[in-house]
Design brief:
Chain B: Belongs to the SecD/SecF family. SecF subfamily. The complex is a heterodimer of chains A (about 550) and B (about 325). Chain A is built from 18 helices and 20 strands. Chain A has about 550 residues and is an alpha+beta fold. Chain A has 3 domains: about 1-25 and about 385-550, Up-down Bundle (Multidrug efflux transporter AcrB transmembrane fold); about 55-125 and about 370-385, 2-Layer Sandwich (Alpha-Beta Plaits); about 130-355, no CATH class. Chain B is elongated. Chain B starts with 15 loop residues before the first helix and ends with a helix. The chains are: A alpha+beta (about 550), B alpha+beta (about 325). Chains A and B meet through α4, β19, α14, α15 and α16 of A and β4, α6, α8, α9 and α10 of B.
Chain lengths: ~550, ~325
């Protein structure tokens, strides 16, 4: 009976370990309280819930090669990974996942995020910051005829230019508009483009003579700034991308669009800047950035530079007093204030009517540094928190119902032995969950469904053994012998089915991706637990029963 | 002792023609629907595209929702009621449309959200769930799952060939393949969307069906050595199936109980999974009796066991743990 004692000890020990592994414990975690993330202690069952069960956002990012050719993608992704991780940490999500998937993608998981769009912007923003002096040599006017010619040859000199001639009457309106920052629309330029086509088609009269650039681009309020009406925006943007135009750029200058569009009456305008191509400093020398609210300027981001950056910035800004310095983020001009004096270590970026939140987000991405490559979203899933909670409730209810049904079937059919099987099944549930918790497996909705299903399948081994015991009893064997033989004969079938299942599970793990892998882990964990409970645990139960009965009692099976 | 199907003497194998006719008819019906409606109804995680689950404050007019989306340039999207009459899913799966979005995969969901906000007023429409997948991710996922399935089948075949006999292995794998085929036909006929959860169901089924067949084959192997002289293999098969019948009924009943709980309680997301599994339980039962057995007979007739070698190997393999083979062997030795 010493053998039996050890068996019981092992089962109880494992149960205690599993219960301990699954016991809710107090952890310090970043949690959301009244809309802000704070560190706090919470009690949690150490089973990780997937995004579909708690709500949140899943992003798959990949290098956007349409914007920039990348030689070594994997290495660039490694660097991007660091930046994204740092930004997410600062964004303040509890238990985020930021990891590389293969050599091509980054996976970001943000549990509990309800503002999906904002999160996405923070992750994806490239945040390459440059300070460039605007051109005051009228370099653009000099190359304009050449630009017009190239545009004409490329077939870009029609349609939109007529619009511009009509707009000249509004010139005064436009320039006065530019002086008032608060008028600038918050609409992103991207959205405006989408409506361009429809507008120009509706209002464009016949084409007039003159080049694309000379007829639609007007000088703006400050040196190096030009104003483009919405109708010509698409054509000019395309023209600027032409290699011939790129080649004809004034030497040492670059052209950049402004971040926002400007609205005057019913017309929308875009700002185009001509800048010195050599930045006076870039975001690399930035050590800190903080959002702040200025009574005059509205929401701003104040930044601090490192020693070397501060020295260079002071020298360069000193050389350019009374010039305009464009603050360029991701190749778009955020603002271009006049330099009144040399600036040293500290400066600020004016957002021109942006919200405090956008100032916070800009400060955040500047602090965490720029992405080495532009990233685009290859996949996004977001699940509302209420839907997640709903899924958990339904899943738990179906688990309970399935369990009850199986208890009824087992106890109804096998009576006392059925009860032993149910006890083994309870142990199976606890062990499996503990193994999953131990492997840090993430419980998802399909995983939960698989778990519910597995309790129906897990009793198979017990059923096999019980049926075999019945057969042996039919052959007139004693209880003890029938139980022994029943277990022994059922074993080969159980071993074969388990081995093939484990083999398949391992193959699925090896060759499957993402969710298929998760499935494989659950499959193997469940199988090992069910083997242990069906063979070892229920055998022990029978052994206990045998040790407490005198041989002639009938076995209820 | 409560007993069902105890000591039955059904002749299962005899009816193989009817079973084959039935199963072939089903597969053909599946192929015909495949031919008519064309293609598998893949979920967006495989094709790429956008799925949004939205909840309206008041039940909306579907025609208005559709025209709103059309106006926003999202043409040809599927709008489906989901759960209550205020919940809808919107699917835009046109790959070209997805690709055309400069912003990447999530572009469409943004334009859907803003179009709905404009039409119904902000706050009246809640986006409960969004999934937007680029087509490239989807195709990798698809090929990954497919390769895994094929290799898993190969491993099962090899394992069974070693443990039993290659004839048993081939019959088991072919009958599992049959189950998958029939399940595909079912999926196609009921136009179930093949999402990752459905793939999980098919993978579960793969294991479940193979298990069922192996358990019967294990009994066949055992019965082969108790074979009465002159008894045909068909008779042995029938005997083995009858002997394992109570077990099959019980285990299918418990699995079905779990599946039905999922089907009726777990909600819309799990429903396709549960439907495929519920159907799969019946197919697995059917195939392990009517498909795997006859297939084994057919393989045996094509490639009969020439030497007594392979048979005895098949028989012996199952008795690693069984005491009475050893004693029987000893008897045989003694008889010599």
């Amino acid at each position: 009976m010493a053998n039996l004692k050890y068996r019981i000890l092992l089962i109880v020990g494992l149960f205690a370990a599993s219960a301990w592994a699954l016991f809710p414990r107090t952890v310090v975690e970043r949690v959301k309280r009244d809309g802000v993330f704070v560190y706090d202690t919470v009690r949690r069952v150490p089973l990780k819930r997937g995004l579909d069960l708690q709500g949140g956002m899943h992003l798959t990012l990949e290098v956007d090669e349409s914007k920039q050719a990348v030689a070594n993608k994997s290495e660039a992704l490694d660097r991007a990974l660091k930046v994204v991780r740092q930004r997410i940490d600062e964004f303040g999500v509890s238990e985020p996942v930021v990891q590389k998937a293969g050599t091509e993608r980054i996976i970001v998981e943000l549990p509990g995020i309800d503002d999906a769009e904002r999160a996405q912007d923070v992750v994806q923003k490239s945040a390459f910051l440059e300070f460039q002096i605007t051109d005051k040599t009228q370099a653009f006017e000099k190359v304009m005829p050449r630009f017009d010619e190239i545009a004409k040859n490329a077939g870009l000199s029609t349609a939109s230019q007529a619009k511009a001639s009509g707009d000249t009457t509004k010139k005064v309106g436009v320039t006065s508009l530019l002086t008032q920052k608060s008028d600038s629309s918050k609409d992103s330029t991207g959205k405006a483009v989408a409506t361009t086509g429809a507008d120009s088609a509706a209002t464009t009269p016949a084409a007039v003579t003159g080049g694309l650039f000379s007829s639609s681009v007007q000088a703006g309020q400050i040196p190096g700034q030009y104003i483009v009406p919405e109708a010509s925006y698409a054509a000019i943007e395309r023209a600027l991308a032409l290699p011939a135009i790129q080649g004809a750029m004034p030497p040492g200058k670059v052209m950049r669009w402004g971040v926002d569009s400007l609205v005057s009456g019913t017309q929308r305008f875009f700002a185009l800047y001509v800048l010195d191509s050599r930045p006076i400093i870039t975001g690399e020398v930035l050590t800190d950035a903080r959002p702040s609210t200025d009574p005059v300027e509205g929401n701003v981001v104040q930044f601090t530079l490192n020693n070397e950056g501060a020295r260079r910035f002071k020298v360069e800004t000193g050389k350019h007093v009374k010039d305009n310095m464009a603050i360029v983020l991701d190749q778009r001009v955020v603002t271009a204030p006049v330099l009144n004096s040399a600036i040293g270590r500290n400066g600020q970026i004016t957002l021109g009517g942006g919200t405090l939140q956008s100032a916070q987000d800009l400060a955040l991405v500047l602090r965490a540094g720029a992405l080495p490559v532009p990233l685009k979203v290859a996949e996004v899933r977001s699940i509302g928190a209420s839907l997640g909670a709903d899924s958990i409730n339904k899943g738990a209810l179906s688990l309970a119902v399935a369990f009850l049904l199986i208890v009824v079937i087992l106890v109804g059919y096998y009576r006392f032995s059925g009860m032993l099987a149910v006890a083994a099944l309870v142990l199976y549930l606890v062990y499996t969950l503990a193994v999953l918790a131990g492997f840090n497996a993430v419980l998802t909705l399909p995983g939960l469904a698989g778990f519910v299903l597995s309790i129906g399948i897990a009793v198979d081994a017990n059923v096999l053994i019980f049926e075999r015991i019945r057969e042996e009893l039919d052959h007139g064997k004693s209880n003890r012998l029938a139980i022994d033989e029943g277990f022994r004969h059922a074993l080969s079938a159980i071993v074969d089915t388990s081995a093939t299942t484990i083999l398949s599970g391992m193959v699925l793990y090896q060759y499957g991706t993402g969710p298929v892998r998760g499935f494989a882990v659950t499959l193997i964990a469940g199988l090992v637990a069910s083997l242990f409970t069906a063979i070892f645990v229920s055998k022990t139960f029978f052994m206990i029963w045998l040790s407490r009965t005198r041989g002639n009692q009938t076995l209820s099976i | 002792m409560l007993r069902i199907f105890h000591n039955t003497k059904f002749e299962f194998v005899k009816h193989w023609r009817m079973a084959a006719g039935l199963t072939i008819a089903f597969i053909v019906a599946g192929l015909v629907t495949f031919g008519i409606t064309g293609g598998v109804n893949y979920g967006i995680e495989f094709t790429g595209g956008t799925l949004m689950q939205v909840q309206f404050k008041q039940a909306p007019d579907v025609a208005v929702v559709r025209s709103t989306l059309d106006k926003a340039g999202i043409t040809g999207s599927e709008i489906q009621q989901y759960g209550t009459n205020t919940e809808y899913t919107i699917r835009a799966r046109d790959e070209k449309q997805v690709e055309a979005q400069a912003a990447g995969a999530e572009g469409i969901s943004k334009s859907i959200a803003s179009a709905l906000d404009q039409q119904f007023g902000a706050g009246n429409v809640t986006i409960v769930r969004t999934e937007a997948v680029g087509p490239k991710v989807g195709s990798e996922l698809r090929s990954g799952a497919f390769t895994a399935m094929i290799i898993a089948s190969l491993f099962t075949l090899i394992y069974l060939a070693i443990r039993f006999d290659w004839r048993f292995g081939a019959a088991a794998v072919l009958s599992t393949a049959h189950d998958i085929l029939v399940t595909f036909a079912f999926i196609k006929m009921f136009n179930i969307e093949v999402s990752l959860t459905v793939v999980a169901a098919i993978l579960t089924l793969l294991g479940y069906s193979a298990n069922d067949t192996i358990i019967i084959f294990d009994r066949v192997r055992e019965d082969l050595k108790k074979r009465i002289k002159g008894e045909s293999l068909a008779k042995v098969l029938d005997r083995a199936i009858n002997e394992t019948l109570p077990r099959s009924i019980m285990t299918h009943a418990t699995t079905l109980a779990s599946t039905l709980a999922l089907l009726f309680i777990a909600g819309e997301v799990i429903r396709p999974f549960a439907m495929v599994m519920a159907f799969g339980v019946f197919v697995a039962t059917f195939s392990s009796i009517y498909v795997a057995g006859p297939l084994l007979l057919w393989i045996e007739s094509k490639y009969p066991r020439t030497s007594s070698d392979s048979t005895s190997r098949a028989v012996n393999a199952g008795n690693d743990n069984s005491g009475d083979t050893r004693s029987r062997k000893a008897e045989r030795l003694a008889a010599r």
